[in-house]
């Protein structure tokens, strides 16, 4: 793909996914997530050309300017959307697929101190990572999956699955339909996804999980209490 074609494609993605965007010039000048992605394209090439120190230095400058830290070794696909961006961290062996959306404060990090091999997660196409979410280790998040705000993901996530909580667990049914990613403030494709943890359906799902767990525990305690009472109750004497 030609350079300018790629640039125009990424500008169009920000205009499509963020309803606050009013025009191409505003996106080019005022969107740090886009700046971070563009800087990373350069740094990643330098990294692959073995100009490692220069790549790291420029990525450090990019972090200072945008608030987004992307290791130059990370691989980003096409049309990656980083909304707001402040505090986003993407590790050196992370892979982010086409049409993924990453919200502020999200981390694609590692769980080991070893410096060899794959240490960071892989996001397949169309994944949405909510604000403050942490995806840790060399795990795969399947196509069109959603990671809820502030979730901590340490196990693989299936295709089309939405996960929330600490540690993250699946809620609802997997969605197989294509989703081109984020929606600035809840508009556009994927608008049912709670990027900021304010979706009523997700709140209801979480409450239902807690309620079901409490009900199960109460039943177990009642059964144990009934058994104890049956054991400790003395037999009744028959009256003559």
Could you describe the 3D structure shown?
Helices cover 36% and strands 15% of the residues. The termini are far apart. The model is unreliable at 178-189 (pLDDT under 50). With 240 residues, the chain is an alpha/beta fold. It has a six-stranded mixed β-sheet. Strands 1-4-7-10-13 form a five-stranded parallel β-sheet.
Q: What is the element layout, followed by pairings?
A:
Elements: H1 3-17, H2 24-30, H3 32-48, H4 52-66, E1 69-70, E2 75-76, E3 81-83, E4 89-90, E5 95-96, E6 101-103, E7 107-109, E8 122-123, E9 128-129, E10 134-136, E11 140-141, E12 146-147, E13 152-153, E14 162-164, E15 169-171, H5 200-232
Parallel strand pairs: 1-4, 2-5, 3-6, 4-7, 5-8, 6-9, 7-10, 8-11, 9-12, 10-13, 12-14
Antiparallel strand pairs: 14-15
Helix pairs in contact: 3-4
Quick synopsis:
By secondary structure, the protein is an alpha/beta fold. It is built from five helices and 15 strands.
């Amino acid at each position: 793909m030609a350079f300018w074609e790629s640039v125009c494609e990424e500008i169009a993605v920000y205009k499509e996914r963020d309803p606050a965007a009013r025009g191409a010039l505003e996106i080019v000048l005022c969107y740090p997530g886009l700046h971070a992605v563009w800087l990373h394209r350069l740094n990643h090439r330098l990294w692959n050309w073995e100009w490692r120190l220069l790549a790291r230095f420029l990525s450090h400058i990019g972090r200072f300017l945008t608030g987004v830290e992307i290791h130059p070794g990370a691989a980003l696909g096409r049309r990656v959307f980083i909304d707001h961006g402040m505090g986003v961290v993407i590790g050196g062996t992370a892979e982010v697929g086409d049409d993924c959306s990453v919200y502020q404060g999200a981390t694609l990090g590692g769980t080991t101190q070893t410096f060899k091999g794959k240490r960071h997660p892989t996001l397949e196409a169309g994944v949405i990572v909510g604000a403050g979410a942490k995806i840790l280790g060399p795990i795969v998040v399947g196509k069109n999956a959603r990671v809820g705000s502030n979730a901590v993901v340490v196990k693989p996530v299936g295709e089309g699955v939405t996960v929330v909580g600490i540690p993250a667990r699946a809620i609802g049914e997997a969605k197989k339909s294509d989703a081109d990613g984020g929606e600035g403030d809840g508009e556009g494709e994927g608008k049912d996804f709670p990027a900021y943890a304010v979706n009523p359906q997700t709140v209801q799902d979480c409450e239902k999980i807690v309620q079901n767990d409490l009900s199960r525990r109460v039943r177990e305690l009642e059964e144990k209490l009934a058994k104890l009472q049956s054991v400790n109750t003395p037999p009744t004497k028959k009256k003559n």
